[in-house]
Specification:
Helices cover 21% and strands 42% of the residues. With 76 residues, the protein is of the alpha+beta class. The protein has one domain: Roll (SH3 type barrels). A 5-stranded antiparallel beta sheet has the order 3-2-1-4-5, covered by helices on one side. The two termini are 16 Å apart.
Length: 76
């Protein structure tokens, strides 16, 4: 299963951005995003690409749900 995850934009350089969520930082591409983000915005990240800019409140709500969902999983 693949997940698209909301992540906060930390830095932008051309068509690349550095994003963070839950202590994880990643470099992503901005080639296919629907609306160009700014530093501090949240974007939905899937397969190394930012694909959609998302409202901060919605992003934080989604991250909270992910955290709750994964904290209930038994260690594998």
């Amino acid at each position: 299963m693949c997940l698209a995850v909301p992540m906060e934009v930390l830095n932008i350089d051309g068509n690349r951005a550095w994003v963070s969520a839950g202590g994880t930082k990643r470099e992503v591409r901005l080639d296919v995003i629907d609306q160009r983000p700014h530093i501090g915005d949240y974007v939905i990240v899937h397969a190394g690409f930012a694909i959609h800019r998302i409202d901060q409140e919605m992003a934080k709500e989604t991250l909270k749900m992910f955290e709750e969902m994964f904290s209930n999983e038994a260690p594998g």
